[in-house]
Amino acid sequence: MQSTMDLGTVSPTIEPMSPETNAPILRIIGKAPLSGHVPISGAKNSILALMAGTLLSSEGCRIRNVPNLADVKRMSDILETLGVKISRSGETLDLDTSNLTTNSAPYELVSKMRASFFALGSLLARLGSAKMPLPGGCAIGARPVELHVRGLQALGAFVQIEHGIVHAHAMSSNGRLQGARIYMDYPSVGATETLMMAATLAEGETIIENAALEPEVVDLADLCRAMGAKISGAGTNTIAIQGVDRLHFADFTAIPDRIEAATFMIAAAITRSTLSMSPVIPAHLTAAISKLQDIGVTVRIDSEDMITVIGGDRYRAVDIETLPYPGFPTDMQAQFMALLSICEGNGVVTETVFENRLQHVAELNRMGANIRLKNNVAVVTGVPQLSGAPVMATDLRASAALVIAGLAADGETTITGLHHLDRGYDRIEEKLRNVGANLYRTTANTAV
Ligand code: UD1
After folding, report:
1. Which protein residue's CA is at the shortest distance from atom 5 of ligand 1?
2. 139 falls in which pLDDT band (50, 70, 90)?
3. Residue-range definition of the domain harbouring residue 179
4. Are residues 32 and 51 in the same domain?
């Protein structure tokens, strides 16, 4: 649970500018006006699930619109240890899944990326047994997996957790899972994906109730359907899956990344600039568009895959509460908090999805923001101007929030902890530089 310590004060333990290390840092000279067009990459969270989904068939898959991200590389490494052969050409991944050599994923890799745990569902469905290390602790909260485990048990798997490894096998004599009715206590994205994949090859019908509605769940269902799965209701809270005997090859293009798009939308807003972006699916951005409009930003939907954000002169604070889709996404909370920090008035940000996802508060305060934190609630009192400072990225979306804040701040901001940023943003410096931002990556040694 979130500590009751007031993180609104500057932490004395953070020393992001250590001159001894060669860790990369991002230097941003703030207040450069932005203008132009930003290309949006494929959705990280979709692609990680799609890659897990390819394990369901022995005929392989082609996935298009795959950005160069550390998380994609890590997922590729995990699939390769299972025997998958992967080749990349530009933004296209070809996955040869014909010969899985083991049912056991390596601890060192799975512990670093929670999404890889979701492959438990596809591996178990394909092979009848799977061993998956529990995902490691994560900076944004405990992130348990009991919804995945209980769902797989309902599908007829025997699941045992021993020494940090989840051992699962189908209990039926033919090694197949059995269709079942599953009610999830919470609409977990990952558990919905794990169970949907597992059910595609089960005998009979599975109904997942209180399923997650996120677009990435729908994208995974679309891939499974392209592979021959019978799935209906993805994108609603009841998903029905009629199990089939086998799945086949598919050539599939991932949806654009709504979180990356929202990050650039906020970058435009906070610098009071005009930026267009495509491809996007505007319907996936409803919560972000609505909050931006409430703040006083103009958002224009130019076409079915392009939007333009036009910054304004005066912004008023709004309240934000993170919720499962179509509520306000937790993955956009940190970036919006950076924008709220320069809005007039008080905005209350309530994080309900992950208990410890407000570590960027202390860093934004280093940049002159006025944010008070109590448990999972942050009260952001707008200030006229942020000021550049050395700060440290604490997780993926926090790192994006610091970049956004740095773009608007007076003077220079230096950000360390860039491995977080590289997990989910492909060429972010290049994309921002192309629209006028003044930022570059260097090392701590050269910066001091
Ligand atoms: C996914 C996204 C992540 C996003 C999150 C919520 C990927 C790779 N990651 O993460 O970027 O922030 O959705 O939109 O797609 N929970 C349990 N028990 C479980 C599973 C989850 O208690 O078995 C809890 C979690 O601790 C958390 C909440 O449910 O508090 C939401 O988690 P979940 O929707 O599962 O998120 P992820 O799939 O891990």
Report:
1. 189
2. low
3. 44-253
4. no
Residue 16 placed within a domain:
no
Same domain, 392 and 331: yes
Residue at 150 is within a domain: yes
Give the CA count within 13 Å in the CB-facing half-sphere of 309.
32
CA of 192 to the centre of ligand 1 (A): 10
CATH number of the domain where residue 432 is located:
3.65.10.10
Q: Is 70 in the same domain as 85?
A: yes
Q: Which atom of ligand 1 is closest in space to residue 188's alpha carbon?
A: 34
Least Cα distance to 330 among 408, 425, 400, 269 occurs for 400
Q: Which pLDDT band holds residue 419 (cuts at 50, 70, 90)?
A: very high
Q: Could you write out the three-class secondary structure of 61-97? A: EEEECCCCCHHHHHHHHHHHHCCCEEEEECCEEEEEC
For residue 107, the Cα-to-chain-centroid distance in whole angstroms is 21
Closest protein CA for atom 39 of ligand 1: 190
- Please answer whether residues 270 and 33 qualify as being in contact, where contact means their C-beta atoms are separated by less than 8 angstroms: no
93 & 121 share domain:
yes
Tokens of 269: 């807003």
Judge whether 33 and 436 are in contact, CB under 8 Å.
yes
Write phi, then psi, for 80 (nearest 5 degrees): -65, -35
Ligand 1 binding site (Cβ under 6 Å of any ligand atom): 45, 48, 114-115, 141-148, 186, 188-191, 212, 216, 330-331, 353-354
Report helix, strand or coil for 281.
Answer: coil
- Tell whether 131 and 230 lie within a shared domain: yes
pLDDT over threshold 70, residue 294: yes
Catalytic site positions: 138
- The secondary element (H helix, E strand) that includes residue 121 is helix 119-127
Q: Which residue has the tokens 């991200």?
A: 69
Residue 151: per-residue pLDDT? 97
